[in-house]
Amino acid sequence: MSILQLEKVSKSYGSGNEQVEVLSDINLTIGEGEFVAIVGFTGSGKTTLINLINGLLFPDCGTVLFKGKQVTGPGPERGVVFQNYSLLPWLSVYQNIYLAVDQVSPGTTKKEKDEMVRKYIGLVNLTPALEKKPAELSGGMRQRVSLARTLAMQPEVLLMDEPLSALDALTRAVLQKEIINIWTKDKRTALLITNDVDEGILMADRIIPLNPGPKATLGPNFKVPFERPRNLLEINQDPVYKQLRNEIIEYLIEMGNHRRSDSSDSLKLPDLQPVMPGRVFLGNREKRKKVKYF
Amino acid sequence: MISKVLQPARELVEPKEKVTLINKDKLIKVVKFIGLGFLEPLVRIGVGEEPRKNALLIVKSTVFPVCSILLFLVLWHYGAAYLFNVEANIKIEAARAAQGEAAALAMKECIASGDLSCKPNVLPSPSEVYEAAVTLWQDHLAIMAKKVAFSEKVAETNASRQAQGLEMITYTGRPSFIDQIKTSILTVFAGFLLAMVLAVPAGVLMGLSTTLRTSFNWLIQILKPVSPVVWLLLVFMIVKTLIKDPSLDKSFIISFVSVGLCSMWATLVNTSLGVSSVDKDFVNVARVLKLGIGKNIRKIVLPFSFPYIFTGLRITISVAWMVLIAIELLAQSPGLGSFVWEEFQNGANDSNAKILVAMIVIGLIGFLLDRLMVMLQRLLVVSKSEAS
Hints:
By secondary structure, chain A is an alpha/beta fold. Chain A contains eight helices and ten strands. Chain B folds into two domains: 14-118, no CATH class; 175-387, Orthogonal Bundle (MetI-like fold), CATH 1.10.3720. In chain B, α12 (293-331) packs parallel to α13 and α12 (293-331) runs antiparallel to α14 (351-387). The interface between A and B is medium-sized, with 25 and 18 residues.
């Protein structure tokens, strides 16, 4: 059964001549409990796609269905882990999570809420940093807090918008593992947006490349055949892994080249005359021409 | 053997040093907290930390400013002396022209003797201002003594009047300089509170809604630059009609309301700016969490715009203080402004000096009010982080 369905979705920014169609004709179906990764170049419209799904943006045409119903706005049932953490800097780790817990579980006692907050903070191994402010944490820790906050919303779909792209490789690996662990525990549906093919292969059941924008569309599905739990080292040795990885990367590069060769319009360089410093014109200049820079 | 002897000695020294370290850090914290950060190197040199570097810092942060003040005093002194001579010569020449050489000589002698009857009326010198300050203080003490004596005298009568349900007899004599300062500070705080109560909620509302902001923008832009004097007249027109009860202090109400209305604009504009510029990421978080409007304001909007609001409030209190003097001067409500005006009208031989005393006091209080706001801001930020 599909929990999330996008049908012929397209989205443009701007208006008139400036209008740029970022996404066009996006079709995507995600089943319950599935872990899907969308891989694409930066600037190909990945964040727009995730904002369409969580309801922060609305498509120009097409429909976004969540459990068979049209998405009318954001909500905690489609929790997002934002790319830039988006933690409230004036609240401590505890208070940041508490805000989410308080919001999604009305009618529970203070003690229950407190337990839940501690549970989620424990889930991402941040109990020692309970009372710290986001500014006192490292990037990896902040992203953990952000993850814990999203988990605390008890979302039915976990949307991750390049959650690890700002982190160093080591922290990345650790967090990838943690996310997978958490996901295996309660098998939520998850959608990961990333620019790292390896990350997608390690974490997801299915990888869909996003062709570079403008007018980005989704590419073909690549099933990831590895058994869980996956071990990075073992997978690395596997010839199937190498083949899959190469296929996806080749596809992306080919699409990128294709896209680039598409745009054949040559840009005209401006005809500029250098202005020498120190020359002062007095009175009316002979030709008061405006210099066009672009 | 040696180590055994040394060890207890080290133990004795170490904790002691730790204590001084903590005290130093605490002291520096306190000093910085009350906005006297320039004293930090003095504290550090006091515990013998990097004497050379800190001595240089002291020279820069304390000695130079003190020097500049001394330079100012010297310039003032000579400037005043020069003006005195100019005025004295004019007087002598006037006497010569009117009554001849003998009168001019008499005038010259009279001025040289320092007699008050022929003292030229000019910019007072620093020493005269100092004397005037002393006079004002003694005057204050005298009035205080009078007040005490008066209350003792009427204590019995008051007791019996109270028993009969009649109004108490209060001292109605001339207020001293210190009383004027107190009234002024009271007025400025009342005005500031009014400004805060009006401007912060209005600013939040306007920041949240673009429609409200654009609809009121013109009105605000028009009202903002209006002079305090005009505000005073406007408030006078309204208060005169609204308040007929003679027991209320009408002049106080008029002055604090006009102060509030003049000074609230900075806070209003800053608050709405802060609220409207809440980071998009935080707005998204609030939307995903489906925070209600109240919670959104409390948890996201207000904390985000807190620095903006405080900048606005700081401007507001300094504007309030500046405007207050002018308004008191015009409204004839008691306070420093009317003190200055009365002294100017008075024209006694030390009036000018008293006006300058008031000027210095006004400057100092304005400075202190600003420091107070900085302290308050730090206090709120600190207590917020401690409450977590």
